[in-house]
Design goal:
It contains 21 helices and seven strands. The chain is an alpha+beta fold. It is globular.
Length: about 450
């Protein structure tokens, strides 16, 4: 234990932390951030629930992941499936709209898989303690973020979030199932081995519904915990136990990575967001509309350059583009879910700007990545001349966190059109009260279908 009484890695490492962490060990700020990311993830899930991706995966889970002894309802669906199926469907529903929190050094997202896995496990195991649920969320962020950093250090390829979020979800499962520390070690090893080490840049270059692998990672992690409970073995997990990553795990219970996640103002890849922010700032500062703009020039980092779809035919391609959301920002003065889907994909003014955009990479911006993501935008005007932004980073970084009012406004912007103002308001209040109130007060609102009716 630390002098503050908080558990840390010690001789039991991550497995000890999984079982020893208590709600009272978590600093008040970290508890509040658990509620912050919970509300944001629920809003993104509500917005994502209407996508083709979400409908397909929920239908798939209902057909092929039937409930057995454990039953868990799917996010904004209401149908009960297996815990692994609910984790899969929930993770992919959130990931269907690329607006959820993330971490710079993992180049990915812990909460997208951790939340649906925790919901599935708590419902399947009949757990209704709000404090225990918040503790599980914090635990998931702490284990998941470290596993992501460790994977980047030990593997040469860039894998999706599902590859390492599986480890966090197995840890949540081990805690929810009351596994021994020895069984927990096996669960984490199973999850690391079976986690989807899918190639992130493949989906960047060819955007499809595969996205960031978070749902598959959540499914693998939940399954790993249940397998370990039945005696299946899989230890060790290299990203947790290898000597070369020991420093990453040494500060469990002392450094709280949940405080170091970023908030996404826009529902597109984080790599595109600095350029979107710069474009919106230029538009507002100079009182411009798209009619004033002849063409746009973006200087950015290599990964942002790789988001290369100019005329997306799907919302997935629009989310994995730099040119399209920047064009949306100039043409519409905002980038919201409705701006990257449906009829918006055929907006001729947006497509004009997107197709003609010139994008180049900067050595300086490349060197700053991934700790910093920087872009610069120049607008060439029809009247002659040009205006150029400062080198710009995306809003919502942990060094300059988004105000609470902005997080709540985004939740309502995403959730209210789908759920209605009354239900969205009740969800917000339930998140605020979680801990003092039971978990079921919240889950009854988010695990029924979008009409609020259980099929």
């Amino acid at each position: 234990m630390t002098r503050s009484g908080r558990p840390r890695a010690g001789s039991h490492g991550a497995t000890g932390f999984v079982h020893d962490l208590r709600f009272t060990d978590i600093p008040a700020e970290a508890r509040q951030y658990a509620r912050r990311w919970l509300l944001d993830l629920i809003g993104v899930a509500a917005g994502g629930s209407g996508t083709d991706l979400s409908g397909i995966i929920r239908g798939h889970a209902h057909k092929h992941f039937g409930a057995g002894e454990g039953r868990a309802r799917m996010l904004f669906d209401g149908r009960a499936v297996s815990p692994a199926g609910a984790a899969l469907a929930g993770g992919m529903t959130i990931d269907a709209l690329d607006g959820h929190d993330g971490h710079k050094l993992t180049k990915g997202h812990a909460g997208c898989g951790v939340l649906p896995a925790a919901l599935a496990l708590f419902e399947a195991e009949g757990l209704d303690d709000g404090e225990a649920f918040l503790t599980a969320l914090v635990l998931g962020y702490e284990i998941g973020t470290r596993a992501g950093i460790a994977l980047h250090r030990t593997a040469c390829d860039y894998h999706t979030s599902g590859a390492w979020v599986a480890v966090a979800c197995a840890a949540l499962g081990a805690r929810a199932l009351g596994l021994s520390k020895a069984q927990t070690r096996e669960a984490i090893g199973i999850a690391e081995y079976h986690g989807p080490r899918s190639q992130m840049m493949r989906c960047i270059d060819h955007p499809t519904m595969l996205k960031d692998g978070s749902g598959w990672g959540a499914m693998a992690g939940v399954s790993a915990a249940y397998l370990a409970a039945d005696g299946f073995t899989g230890a060790p997990a290299v990203t947790v136990e290898a000597d070369e990553v020991a420093d990453i795990w040494a500060d469990l219970g002392q450094r709280w990575f949940i405080l170091e996640q970023y908030f996404k103002p826009f529902p597109v890849c984080r790599w595109a967001q600095p350029a979107v922010r710069a474009a919106l700032d230029l538009r507002k500062r100079h009182g411009l509309s798209s009619r004033d703009v002849d063409r746009i020039e973006v200087t950015t980092f290599h990964e942002s350059l790789r988001l290369a779809t100019r005329a997306p035919q799907s919302t997935e391609a629009a989310q994995y583009s730099t040119s399209f959301p920047v064009a949306v920002a100039i043409a519409r003065g905002k980038v919201d879910p409705e701006d990257i889907s449906g009829a918006a994909l055929h907006d001729e003014e947006v497509l004009r700007l997107s197709r003609d955009m010139r994008i180049s990479e900067s050595d300086a911006f490349n060197s700053a990545f991934p700790a910093r993501r920087i872009s610069q935008v120049t607008l060439h005007l029809h009247a002659g001349g040009q205006v150029t932004s400062e080198p710009t980073e995306a809003g919502g970084d942990p060094e300059n966190p988004a105000p609470d009012a902005e997080v709540r406004a985004k939740f309502h912007a995403y959730a209210t059109p789908v759920l209605g103002a009354e239900r969205a308001g009740r969800i917000e209040a339930s998140v605020d009260d979680l801990g003092a109130a039971p978990l079921s007060r919240l889950t009854d609102l988010i695990l029924s279908d979008v009409k609020g009716v259980n099929p």
